[in-house]
Design a protein that fits this description.
Layout (H helix, E strand, L loop, with lengths): L4 H13 L12 H13 L4 H8 L3 H13 L3 E4 L9 E4 L1 H21 L5 H22 L21
Antiparallel strand pairs: 1-2
């Protein structure tokens, strides 16, 4: 029996091309959005920790963090736990920009799912979480998630 994973592949390809949620004036670069999201959930991180978390080489992360620093989104601080490596922490501006970005994406998702029931949205989110968690398990790089589903998400008006 052939598994229907080809349907997932095709839909995932289509999903990756839909930038409708991210093409807004002043939108954060995708790499900055992911970097800030990870630091927000985990706390200050060194280049080594970021490299391990993202599976990227240090030179790539040095470029990404340098751009985020130039934009005032992150700052380097001494390790709060007394280690030698300096860590990156989100600035107030970075927090604000991340909240703005997330609000915009949530508003877009609210428009897309305007005709969905809350049960459908919850089920879809659960399948996405399971899919991502299985990828993370296979890659050996789990992504921390907030304690509650919306702990680090800014509040937004519901569509409807």
């Amino acid at each position: 029996m052939v598994r229907p994973t080809h349907e997932i592949e095709y839909e995932q390809m289509l999903l990756s091309r839909h930038e409708v949620l991210r093409h807004r004036a002043g939108a954060l670069e995708r790499s900055a959005y992911i970097l800030l999201s990870r630091i927000r959930v985990q706390g200050p991180m060194s280049i080594g920790e970021l490299s391990e978390a993202f599976g990227l080489d240090a030179s790539t992360l040095n470029r990404q963090t340098a751009a985020a620093m130039r934009a005032g989104l992150v700052e380097r601080i001494p390790d709060p736990e007394g280690g030698i490596a300096r860590k990156f922490r989100i600035t107030e501006k970075g927090e604000h920009r991340l909240d703005e970005e997330r609000r915009g994406i949530i508003e877009g998702l609210n428009m897309i799912t305007a005709d969905w029931s809350d049960d459908d949205i919850v089920a879809f989110a659960a399948y996405l979480r399971r899919f991502n968690s299985d990828i993370e398990r296979l890659a050996g790089r789990p992504w921390p998630r907030p304690a509650a589903p919306d702990t680090d998400l800014p509040k937004t008006k519901q569509a409807g």
